Every structure is written in structure tokens, then in C-alpha cells.
Here is the input.
Amino acid sequence: MTADSRLSEAKRSLTVTCLGWIALWLNTLFPVSCLAEQMLSKTLEERFTKGVEAQKAGQLKEAEWAFLEVLRQGGKTAFLHNNLGIVYQQQGAHQRALSQFREAVRLQPDYAAPRFLMGASLMSLGKMAEAIRELEQALKLDPGQTLGRLQLIRAYELAGSPVAVVDQYRKLREDHPQDPEYAYQLGKAYLKLSGWAFQRMKELNPRSPLLYQTLANNYRLQGRDELAVRALKQAIDIDPKLPELHLLLAEIYLAQGKSGEARKELDLELSILPDSRAALALKEKLEASSR
Here is the structure.
């Protein structure tokens, strides 16, 4: 994926992510308003509330004006900067939003919400490394935030980090063991990780016997046994002493009814690993079938 396509994908992802965060924020306006009552004067609290109402109604200019008025009159609080940042984020002004989220974090370092929202804006700007750093820190502060973890997974995907994607889906699976969606997504993540590992192996050592062994396993899953045999023979040519290569060939030959070839490959496997349970079991099966 090119840098331009990663940026476009990040922007598409951000649209959904921001809607989710804004919905979450709207559902928590009541406790924020209560906090405003505790930290702002009566006059500033009323202006702040008007800003919140305007934001809920989609009147972003009015909300921006109300929040800026509170700031100008001394109501400098972390949650106010966070709300103002959300207004800018809704307007697509991500640099301005980032300034507000960073100020919210400076005033209250243990405040997770602006870090999550910062991650969304940084993703929109194509700054994946910074987005990942903020999202990871946010999850340390609020590890149960599922939406935030999904956002981090998306950032890892766009950054090309399949190992980290698997780790995060494993965490979601642990947190939600009854949810089949996370089990399914974890399975998909493992498949992508396998493909990534295979490609890396190919780039680092195109003559690796493990590369051909992996190819052979994939061909077997597709029912393409002749191609699997060819790949295994290529692996054996490179390293005839690598365990399991002869065993895999023996399994294919036995399934094809080629008992003589299967027996020969099993003898070679047992010369490498005399105590191989899989090879001994297959040899017993072969001998039983030939009686």
C-alpha cells in the first residue's frame, strides 16, 4: 500500500471512528456538565452548557463561540479544551483539534478521552506513528475502551504491523469471549500474519526450505497435492535433514496409494528423528494396511 493510499484509507476510517467517538461523547455529556458545575462559575457554566447544547444540535459555530468565550473569561479546564477539540474535529480542522486535545492532556495527563481523539485526528493526517503512540497511552489509562482498541487496530493495520494487530484482537477476544465477531477477526488477523511472515521469509531468504514447506502446506490445503510434492522436493534439495519434510511427503504418497514411496520417505524421516511420534504412527498405519 502506497503512502497516498494509506492516507486515503485513514481518512475513510476516521469518518467512522470519529462518528463513534462523537456518539460516545454525546452519551457522556451529563457527567461532563456536572463536572462543569463543580469547576466553573455559574455564568461560565451556563455558557458552557449552551455550547454543549449547540454541539449536540450540530450548530458547531455556535458551540465553538460558546467554548471560546468560556476560555477567554478564565474557564481553562481540560474537559473544555477537549470539547472544543471535538468541535474542530467535526469541522475537519484536525490541526486545530490537535492543539486543543494536547492542551487538555497537558492540564490533565490522566485524561484518556483527548488521547483517543488525538489518535483519530493524527490518523486523518497520515501520522500513523504518532497516532499509535497516543492510542497506546490512552488504552493504558482506559484499557476497557473497546472502540479505542479497535481504532488502535486500524492504525496498526494502516502502519503494516500485523503482529500488533493479532495482539490487540487477542485482547479483545479475552475481554469478550462470547462475541463471535472478535473470534472471527482474530482468525483473519492470523491469516494475514501468516501471509506477511511468508512474504518476509521470501524477501530475506528466497532459498529457505521453510519457504517451500509453507508453500507445500498451502497447496495441500487447496487440494493441489502434485504442487505440494514439488515444493517439498525443492525444500529437501536445499536441506535434506530438515524434520517433517519427508513425513509430509509420506502422508501425500500414502493418500495417493503409493505405499512404496511413502515407506521410503518414512524411513528417511525416522533416520532424522527416530522418536518422531507422527512418523512412527504413520509407519504403523502403513504396515497395517499392507497386511
